[in-house]
Specification:
Blueprint: H1 2-20, H2 22-25, E1 30-33, E2 39-44, E3 50-52, E4 62-67, E5 70-73, H3 80-86, E6 89-92, H4 94-97, H5 102-111, E7 117-121, H6 124-127, H7 152-167, E8 172-177, H8 185-195, E9 203-208, H9 214-224, E10 227-228, E11 244-247, H10 259-268, E12 274-277, H11 282-293
Parallel strand pairs: 2-4, 5-12, 6-7, 7-8, 8-9, 9-10, 11-12
Antiparallel strand pairs: 1-2, 3-4
Helix pairs in contact: 5-7
Length: 296
């Protein structure tokens, strides 16, 4: 019976991928007993659990528990057409460096498949002061920006960005603070004031750079309702209903993840998690990880 089930399982793989969207999102599936005489196929994809009949000769259904692992890169690491064929999510980086026009955002949304997800990195005008070298790529009006300060300049910047996020139908916004944004009373106060001053239209993630204690990060994320964003090879997440991993390379941005490291990552991710590669080899590493998740 197990032999027959395994044969049928192989035949169902493509069917399940098509039903669950797994062929595009790079999620994974594995056959396992579900108790009694029933079995389930834990599979990649989105939506609610599916039931697919095994076929003639079988008295029980195959239950499919859909586990969604969102895989992508930070920025389009290939042509948009090619990217849309391989992945279901991207984290836009351009939104961090300089304002995006509504026309460009609308163009991206129109070109993307209906079920494609845009995650946006929040503008540096919110998180970084104008003294940051990242402002070399900034093309907007300068102001009293950065460190989550609540003033007219940052709020105008936020409102423009919020409009772009709405056009792209974004659900998640990632705020990355620089290492110079240290754990001190003024900065902690700024975080609370900023997030208590804006609409909660999105899920907000915060990736603190520098030496912030787990205790402080946990307290802020819990009270302000933020996802703690981390590189899983550098730090453990301390708060959030799901994990949002940004992989920056080990030791350097110029990095290619080894098979062993991707296997470690595979054991770490859970249903609903995001895995976003942000290293020089991001396109290839994301494809390799997607392929790895599609195997038992």
């Amino acid at each position: 019976m197990l032999e027959v089930l395994e044969t049928r399982w192989r035949g169902l793989v493509q069917e399940v991928k098509e039903l669950a969207g797994g062929s595009q999102c790079g999620c994974w599936m594995v056959w396992e007993p579900a108790g009694g005489s029933s079995h389930r196929l834990v599979a990649g994809g989105d939506g609610n659990p599916l039931v697919v009949p095994i076929g003639e000769g079988f008295k029980f259904p195959f239950f499919l528990e859909i586990l969604m692992i969102h895989i992508g890169t930070c920025g389009f690491s290939a042509s948009r057409k090619k990217y849309f064929e391989e992945f279901k999510v991207v984290e836009i980086q351009k939104s961090f460096y300089t304002p995006i026009s509504p026309e460009l955002a609308a163009k991206w949304r129109e070109q993307a498949p209906d079920d494609f997800e845009f995650v946006l990195k929040a503008p540096q005008t919110i998180t970084h002061p104008p003294s940051s070298p990242t402002y070399r790529r900034y093309k907007g009006k300068m102001g009293d920006f950065g460190f989550f300060k609540v003033n007219q300049d940052t709020m105008e910047s936020w409102e423009h960005f919020r409009e772009i996020a709405k056009i792209l139908h974004a659900d998640i916004i990632i705020f990355q603070s620089p290492a110079s944004f240290k754990e001190k009373e003024e900065n902690v106060r700024n975080i609370y004031e900023f997030f208590n001053s804006i609409e909660r239209d999105f899920v907000f993630g915060w990736e603190p750079r520098g030496n912030w204690s787990d205790e402080t990060v946990r307290k802020i994320c819990q009270e302000v309702k933020l996802i703690h964003v981390v590189d899983p090879f550098k730090r453990e997440k301390v708060w959030g209903e799901f994990s949002y991993y940004r992989l920056h390379g080990i030791g350097s941005y110029r990095y290619r993840y080894s098979d062993e490291e991707l296997l470690r990552l595979k054991k770490l991710v859970k249903d609903g998690d995001y895995v976003m590669f942000n290293n020089t080899n991001m396109w290839e590493d994301a494809l390799r990880f997607k392929s790895l998740l599609s195997t038992r």
